[in-house]
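cron nightly-structures :: item 1 of 1
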Amino acid sequence: METKILEFLAIIIGLYMAWNIGSNDVANAISTSIGSKIITLKKAIIVAAIFEFSGAYFLGGNVAETIQSRIVNPNIFDKDIYIFIYGMLAALLSTGLLLNVASFMGLPISTTHAIVGSVLGFGAIIGGIHAVNWKIASLIFFSWVITPAFSGSLAFLIFTFIQRKILFAFSPLESAKKFVPFFAFITLTLFPFSILSGKITNIDKSLSISNALLLSLTIGFIAFCVAFFLVRRIKITSCKIIHRPPGQLISLEKAKKHLERTYLSSRGDTKEKTSKLLGEVEDLIDEYMEETKFTEKTTEYTQLEKSFGYLQIMTLCLVAFAHGTNDVANAIGPVAAIIQSLSLQKVGFATSIPPWILFIGSIGIVVGLSTWGWRIVETIAHKITALTPTRGFSAEFSAAITILIASQMGMPISTTHALVGAVFGIGLAKGLSALNLKIMRNIFLSWIVTLPLCAVMTIIMFFLIKFIFKVII
């Protein structure tokens, strides 16, 4: 009887946890697309639901293994498996409750922070400090610093490249037509390769790396051709267009070209001084474009942003899939461990996550996104920094790459950190004045308190669950 009750509770609480992941973390995945106005909330939810489910179901088992058994030494629970089960239930319930409150307040907190803090909390209380695998824990902690830094830096570099090579070019739309197909190629080569080369949870056969790469390159080439065709069809429709930048900007661009030629042909001190001057001229060009709001004054830039809208639809799919591969583990890892332990009547961990558990986690995520996801969308899409398709693409692409790399390594990183870090990087590329520092401060503070708060909540919840089952049931 007790076993059946515990199994039922594990499934229900795991579903509740997955719902909260959908309402908080998954909303991050679609926020930048909505903020840049390339897709409506309803359509974004439909697209995200499909790709979140696919990522969670087919690749969600890789990170789940880390959450189950690599943070706390399972041997400390050998004498009483029910202590382990109560602890996992407490971890799921505490994390779900905290996420619920954060979503209500519109704060995008880290689900990974929360579940890892919960597991550490009850593990340390039951088995002592030595029961914690501090090597794995320290790697996870380190990843939480690296994740926003890496994602933000990558987004900063990508958007700076787009600014200088496309937005600030003499003919921005023509420059976009050259670069957009290459971005499409990169995006739709990495996407299938991350799937085909990984450990696909519910498919027995897998491709070799060489075959996966060949197939991915083929898909990327097709994407290149389709993007090339689509962007070529974009025409400038308005007659009220500034075809060329004003004289001051033309002079600066000419000076830049001359300095670039001088830099390439010079040596020693001359090369060093030329490099410094070149940097100053590039900064002047960027400042001029920002101050005059040149990129917002012509129909040409509207059409340019439209071309990046196609790319952002691709990256929306990519970041949703990437999120599903990583964060579903936060809900189903403990559930799988509980079910396995009850079945074996000893502490056990599922070497491969059963498809039906992955299915439950995937469904919970989709429902959470559909019902409460709009609260987090409002924060990231509108309150951190202004977003356009070029900025949204840079943020989503950077976050997706960061998450996919971590998923392949089996490392439970924070999707929230990746995407908020990327949006921060985009805002930084436009200067600190483009960022809402008050909102960023609130988000960073919520990140800091998440882990210790979840650890404490889990300890309290653990003793409460233990009391209920020992005394009442």
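cron nightly-structures :: done
Residues 2-241+298-472 form one domain.
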